[in-house]
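> tool_call: predict_assembly(chains=two)
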Amino acid sequence: MEHLTWTGALSPLNLFLALAFGVLVLAILVQMVLSLIPSGSSRAVYADGTMSSDQGLSGFVGMILQYALLTTLGIIALYVVAGVLMGPNAGIIGGMSQQLLPVWIALIVTYAVSITFKRKLGLYGKMFDSTVGMIGFGLVMFWVFAGFFGGVMDWVTTHDTLSQVSGMKNKGPGTPLNGAEAGDYQWFLLGGDNLARDVFSRLFDGAWIVVLIAPMATLFAFMVGITLGLPAGYYGGKLDTFLSFLANLILAFPVILLFFLLVTPEIVLTGIPNYMAAILFFFPLVFFYVLLNSRFYTQPSVRTPLLIVVLGGLFWAYLSLISNDGAIVSNASYTLPGLPVFLDWIRMPSEILVVFVSVVFVNAPTVFRIVRGLALDIKTRDYVAAAQTRGEGPWYIMLWEILPNARGPLIVDFCLRIGYTTILLGTLGFFGLGLASESPDWGTTINAGRRLLSIYPHAAIAPAVSLLTLVLGLNLLADGLREESLRD
Amino acid sequence: MGLFILRRLGVMILTGLCLTFIVFWLTNLYPNLEKLAKTQGNFRMSDEAVSSYLGDRGYLEPLPIKFGQWLGVAPGWVTEKEDGKTIGRCFSEGTPAEERRSFCGVLQGDWGQSTVFKEDVGGIVATRLALTGKLMFWVLVLMVPSALIIGVLAGMREGSKMDRSLSTVSIVSTATPEYVSGVIFIAVFASSAFGLKWFKGSATSAMDSANFENFFLPVLTISLYGMGYIARMTRASMTEVMTAQYIRTARLKGVSFKNIVLKHALRNALIAPFTVIMLQIPWLLNGVVIVETLFNYKGFGWVLVQAAGNNDIELLLAVSVVSVIVVLLTQLISDIGYVFLNPRIRIS
């Protein structure tokens, strides 16, 4: 097998791509400079009172920019489409594109369905009106699907993520597999890392860890922040002072120091993360209890069965989340029994639990401050006064009057915060904290690759660029959502 | 105003005490102490040896007493060993009896002894802080002006092509954490794989003599992540100012666009970014830790990693005291500075 180049049989296109891209960059720069100069385009006023003007220089540059952009995107799309058809004949990009076929199909289906029904889908549908939002959503969904098809279904990955292949150590992208047999995928598409494992497979396997933990941790942080922030903002007074002091206390901690203190094997031994998990993960239960109870407590015949079902399910999930091998805390001196193993349907190894808990712990105070600020603002509105006059209870007002009206900023912040959580997870991995050293998640992979960075950078660059695109996608998505939610 | 500062100082001291107590508690948990004993003594110590090692050195006293000793409000531990030697927190074996103090803690200016570096903690923190100070100075020199320029240029004509291009740049830069941009910069500009060996991939030599070649990449890496955020805040504040009534009045009077931006809008637009910049400084600490690890620059962040990795209790406490002071002080400065910059706000 030959060594693959990046674009293989499509290499003649590279020149055009470089040309189009060069023109694009140049046009953007020229346009930025031109926007400083006031345009003196000539305007002609006609006898019937209409007016027209030519495009002028900036219009001309704008046109060039548009064509250059279209050409660049067109050639890139051509690489991808041709790659799906030709596979490794179209080089590394072709090979990757063919492996990612399920992801492309899922993306196209998502977009087709969403755009068709976008008027019926509320804020989600409105996002498809903004280009920025669509690009961001595309990037995010790419990684979600890639993580799902790569990490769960194993359709994207080409090799086992832990097996080491002799002779593939630190080999560059596109190296043919040493001693490949007929059934094997014949190349290491993105090369081998310093332990001779396939970078490409590890990248997509690790994507699942990232796209699973980051949103879940953010969700828990939001539950904690909302449950504490609403009463702090609504009641004010001593409660607010106390909770705000606690939040500021955690925020004054340098994040990295907190991670170094919390996410160590020694702390895991003491069981502190388990206790923190037991406290932090209890907040969603409180949240849903208050949410449903405040809405339906006047109709006991609806409320009681509803609460039993919802809270029962949540409590089971809660117990199986915090217990591990039949114990909530288990260390040398004592054991706190938890859910028996056969009922434990969420497998959460203790090193993932500690990462999860510390990320929730770091994020929750910021969410608390945002929710508190929003509650302080919204509680002065007329509809809150109306609800108070109607005789609604304080929790009903907080959860069913204030919270729905704070959803816009909260959804936007949720997207931004997932990005930030992804960065935090990467930071943990970068310092080798928490997750096992052979874990394929991006932070750990960057950490493993950085020692040989100046000689073999490919092993660290692949996860670095992936993390960049995922966080960028989330930021763009948040921007698009903000734009669209401000519009109504 | 005086009362305000006094109250803030009170809250600061309370916060600082709480935080150091949390650090103290976490580092003094038994598994951590056991690890400390084993790294200081030897790894095959028996459990009895570990507890006698820890007991001799005062680690097994109750937590509040140990914390008091560290603060300097409780007398330091003194142990008489079986062979008649006396060791204590505040003196070594050779110190004559009359010079032995009973109190030595932070209040007496004694930060303790580092178990990793075998040196005085105060000295280590001072030298390392100086090195990080150098890094931070250049980061601020690079980051603040460029972020302000990008923000002002983007915000002065909202929705223009310039605005869209620069906003994209700042979104990309906020999405690039230091360990990503650092890795990419080293790979592109300092590795043999791309062949552009413009800069050095390690900043160790910059500790003595910093020059453009060995210092630019770490500075750029830290600046980039904070730059986007400050630029976006500046842009938001600039666009808000540009829609204000007095700007419209100036336009209607026929003031040129250049003068409107420079003389009328800029001053008011820079109030909000000042707060953001001050609050960004503690966040830079994260970047400093990552970049110093990545570029092997042995400053404050590197010390933090070493102290935390080896459970060096007193060094870690000093490090956290310094970082907590930085956080709280920048908050205070940003609040007070905001009042001075914005005469519409009065603190009662």
